[in-house]
Design a protein that fits this description.
This protein is mainly alpha-helical. Helix content is 73%, strand content 0%. Helix 6 crosses helix 7 and helix 8 runs antiparallel to helix 9. The chain is globular, with a radius of gyration of 22 Å. The protein starts with 8 loop residues before the first helix and ends in a 15-residue tail after the last helix. The structure holds protoporphyrin IX containing FE.
């Protein structure tokens, strides 16, 4: 039988960071993949609170990371440690960049680059999945399958979103020739 471990507080905080991070991705997914949800007002509500949810996610992840560092006697002078924690550290760096630029001042200052920077959130999706898979391998807690399920769901919806956007762009660049647009009689 597979033994399931009890999650520690650090694990619970990591899980809460993951859930709040996923919530920040939902409004755009809903708008594009399930446009009818617009009528419920849920995407608008999530969008309104997206910044604060993102900052909460960063803080939870930070405490989770610090607790793990303390628990595992992190040696900052050993490159091997960075190798082991590469996914966690990368995700935390992304979360930090997003959190410190989640304000109107940064949007104004960074202009077009702000959008580019915030696209890093999609990279975090994959690195975070790898982080959980790698770090929890062989000692899953009951939170591990839920986390992996959430991330796989988010990745699948993100792929669907990209497909829909791609199809939309194609339709704009190659408008269908409707009868009205077809050339009428060619006269010499
Ligand atoms: C944005 C950043 C991060 C998020 C959202 C995150 C999230 C998570 C989640 C959800 C788990 C699995 C918990 C479970 O299934 O019970 C986990 C495990 C783990 N995380 Fe992170 N993490 C992040 C950053 C970090 C950092 C910076 C470190 C350390 C430097 C770290 C170290 C670990 C370790 C060691 C585990 C395995 C825990 C165990 O063996 O029980 N994480 N993380």
């Amino acid at each position: 039988m597979i033994a399931i471990d009890e999650p520690s507080l650090a694990n619970v905080l990591g899980f809460m960071a993951l859930v709040s991070y996923s919530i920040t991705l939902i409004p755009t997914i809903l708008r594009i993949v399930f446009p009818k949800t617009k009528d419920t007002g849920i995407p608008k509500l999530l969008l309104k609170h997206r910044r604060i949810i993102g900052i909460i996610s960063f803080l939870l992840a930070l405490v989770h990371g610090l607790m793990m560092i303390q628990k595992r006697n992190f040696d900052f002078f050993d490159l091997k440690t960075f190798e082991i924690y590469i996914q966690g550290i990368t995700t935390l760096i992304i979360f930090t960049l997003l959190a410190i630029t989640s304000n109107n001042w940064s949007v104004k200052k960074l202009k077009k680059n702000w959008k580019k920077l915030h696209k890093l959130t999609y990279l975090a999706m994959f690195v975070l999945t790898w982080h959980i898979w790698d770090k929890m391998s062989g000692h899953w807690t009951y939170l591990t399958p839920i986390s992996i399920g959430i991330m796989m769901g988010i990745i699948a919806l993100f792929a669907l979103r990209l497909r829909i956007e791609h199809q939309g762009k194609q339709q704009i660049s190659e408008p269908k020739l409707t009868p009205a647009k077809l050339p009428t009689k060619i006269t010499k």
